[in-house]
Amino acid sequence: MKLYSFFRSGTSHRLRIALNLKGLTYEQVAVDLRREEHLRDEYRSINPQQLVPALDIDAVTMTQTPAIIEWLEERYPQAPLLPQDPIDRAHACALAAIIGCDVHPVNNRRILEALRHRFKADQAAIDEWCSTWISSGFSAFEALLSARGSDHGFSFGDAPTLADAYLIPQIESARRFKVDLAQWPRLLAIDEACGKLDAFQRAAPVAQPDAS
After folding, report:
1. Is residue 65 a contact partner of residue 3, using CB atoms and an 8 Å limit?
2. How does pLDDT run across 9-56, given as a tens digit for each residue?
3. Of 70, 82, 96, 117, which residue has the fewest beta carbons closer than 10 angstroms?
4. What proportion of the chain, given as a percentage, has pLDDT over 90?
């Protein structure tokens, strides 16, 4: 497997977590978003959408982390990322979707670059923008955990799931944008529990070969 990624990309981070939890090995190819390497023709030929990550498997390239992780779950069912019970699985997917569908898309690099360059937003405005949507999503995530009485250390059950693979990169991003996380104690507890696991440690942005 060859993973095209950027160390600080939240979507790359979540895919690294999923690959690590599955116990899979992969070669990393850095795509430096700061130098706009993703916009070059060379990378466009790999991913026409010019986003990271992309995963090359036996000369077949997959894009979009929800699709890649779904394929991983079907192809490598060991260390499942989703509960077996259909209702539980739906709840875990809903938690992941809060991050993947409602928080991350409005805080990703393309959006922030548009705010900076097209709408002349300064860093304080960027931080406020990010905080607004991160806070909304995290409050909903925390409320759903509280409603279920979740107290297992992870988002769903006593082992990491898809929900954690999505949540932890967004917590990393929240810290970068100076969001006060103290108001979400359950999320902080999950972050601490995940941070003790090798799969999450190796997936962290600071642990990547292109980190700088």
Report:
1. no
2. 999 999 999 999 999 999 999 999 999 999 999 999 999 999 999 999
3. 117
4. 93
Q: How far is CA 69 from CA 3, 46, 80, 109, in A?
A: 13, 18, 11, 21
Nearest one of 27, 33, 26 to 6, comparing CA atoms = 33
Show the domains of the chain with their CATH numbers.
2-79+200-207 (3.40.30.10), 86-198 (1.20.1050.10)
- What is the predicted pLDDT for the residue at 150? 63
* DSSP per residue, the chain: -EEEE-TT-HHHHHHHHHHHHTT---EEEE--GGGTGGGSHHHHTT-TT--S-EEEETTEEEESHHHHHHHHHHH--SS-SS-SSHHHHHHHHHHHHIIIIIIGGGTSHHHHHHHHHTS---HHHHHHHHHHHHHHHHHHHHHHHHHHT--SSSSSTTS--HHHHHHHHHHHHHHHTT--GGG-HHHHHHHHHHHTSHHHHHHSGGGSTT--
Task: Please report how the helices 10-21 and 162-176 are oriented relative to each other, as an axis angle in degrees rounded to 10.
Answer: 140
Quick one: average pLDDT of 156-174? 96
Token pair of 211 as six digits: 């980190």
pLDDT tens-place string over residues 70-126: 999 999 998 999 999 999 999 999 999 999 999 999 999 999 999 999 999 999 999
Rounded to whole angstroms, the Cα distance separating 53 from 69 reads 12
